[in-house]
Amino acid sequence: MELTRATVAELSAQQSEPEWLREARLQAWAAFERLPLPDSGRDEDWRRTDVSKLNFDAFELSANGHSAPSLSTVAQGEAADPAAVLPAGVIFCGLDEAVRAHPELVRPYLAPSEPPDEKFSALTAALWAGGTFVYVPENVHLKVPLQATYGEAGGTAFAPRSLVIVDRGGSLVYVDCFGAGGSLGEGELLSAASTRVIVGEGAQVQYVGLQERGLRTWHFVTQRFSVGRDARVDVVVAGLGSRLSKSFVETSLLAPGAEANLVGVVLTDGDQHSDYQTTQAHLAPHTTSNLLLKSAVKGRSRSIFLGLVRMPQEAQQSDAFQEARALLLSEQAKADAVPKLEIVANDVRCTHAGAIGEIDAEQKFYLSSRGIPEAEAEQLIVAGFFEPALVRIPVERVRERVRSTLARRLEMQRG
After folding, report:
1. Cα-flanking dihedrals φ and ψ of residue 222, to 5°?
2. 408 burial level (CB within 10 Å; 0-12, 13-18, 19+)
3. What is the predicted pLDDT for the residue at 156?
4. What local confidence, expressed as pLDDT, does residue 76 receive?
5. Is residue 354 assigned to a domain?
6. Which pLDDT score, from 0 to 100, does residue 62 have?
7. Which domain holds residue 366?
8. Is residue 68 a part of any domain in this protein?
9. Are both 100 and 218 inside the same structural domain?
């Protein structure tokens, strides 16, 4: 299925979708065609990430259902069938199923009043196939984490879309795993994903986004979190895969008492290119946000962090902090940290910190003096560098998976 307007209509017809969703898809496709490919020479958001070699005509959309995620609960290191453990009222299903069974819940988000204003978001909104819907009712506390795992099969372009709604006073731990693909030939792959999380008044959500796409994949993702009064969201994102990735992580604090905490872990090697762009938008007084991003770059790879804290006039007595630290593990690797503040309110606290450097020579000397070989000492230092971020991953199984991946890739460096 080529990436065309006809494919959008065909995809909608295959699912027997209602007219409102078909129109929303077609409006998003019109926006996709109208919006230019991001230009690193003119677009500030893309100035450090060049996608001019990306040719949409080279990709075909995965057939309906082939990119659907595997849904499971995660408890004590094991996955289980969600139907066996979910309390009454909790919905955990494919987004296409939710369109048929729960249109009143999903329509406000799948058919917005305005089409997307960013090219890759428009592509996802038009051609999404496979995705997850989660609904946690009022005052329901889900005790087991939910997980959606996405592979790469059945095509060369994937557009998963997820919607998570946690109602007033509820709580949830949710994990998105974008895994590496199988052997689909020598061509490139395109992944354009979107996740929207709504955190109701007094609710709490812990979200983990793990990206381990294959090294032939262009990966673009937008993750948006809307946080209500006295609610809290804790976000952990890990970028370990793909050829080139661009991630927009946006938190909007909508009412007093809202809190958002973001932690990022990035490890790149070879010619990998990873670009994380975050927004901490304080749209009400007495709101709080914190960000910590740790990256290590090897080979000829590049890691980029662009972080914006936005505090308009109505954000009085709010508090924001962002910190980005990067380790350069080879002479050709490169890292950028670009914090930005957009402050209008005059009674706020907003601070940021950043550092880019090589492994501390004194730490390496200390370990070497204790008989630890130099390469192993470097690996231990890098592991320790990541650990304050890794301990924030709320699911043990995912936490150990990330630790294992980091250790394996750092071991490859020693070899």
Report:
1. -120, 125
2. exposed
3. 85
4. 47
5. no
6. 74
7. 360-415
8. yes
9. yes
Show Cβ contacts of residue 391 under 8 Å, excluding neighbours closer than 6 positions. 399
247, 366: one domain: no
Parallel, antiparallel, or unpaired: how do β-strands 146-150 and 70-75 relate? antiparallel
> In terms of domains, do 377 and 239 share one?
no
Among 155, 170, 167, 99, which residue's Cα sits nearest to residue 132? 99
Of 211, 232, 255, which closes a domain?
255
Number of domains in the chain: 2
Are 226 and 77 found together in one domain?
yes
Chunk the chain into consecutive blocks of 10 residues (it has 415) and report each block's average pLDDT, rounded to whole numbers: 90 94 97 96 94 92 69 66 79 95 97 92 93 96 92 76 97 90 62 96 97 92 98 97 96 98 96 98 98 96 97 98 95 95 96 91 86 87 93 91 89 59
pLDDT of residue 412: 67
On whether both 222 and 370 belong to a single domain, the answer is no
Residue 287 lies in a domain: no
- Any domain includes 76: yes
- What pLDDT is attached to residue 369? 86
* Residue that finishes a domain, picked among 200, 221, 255: 255
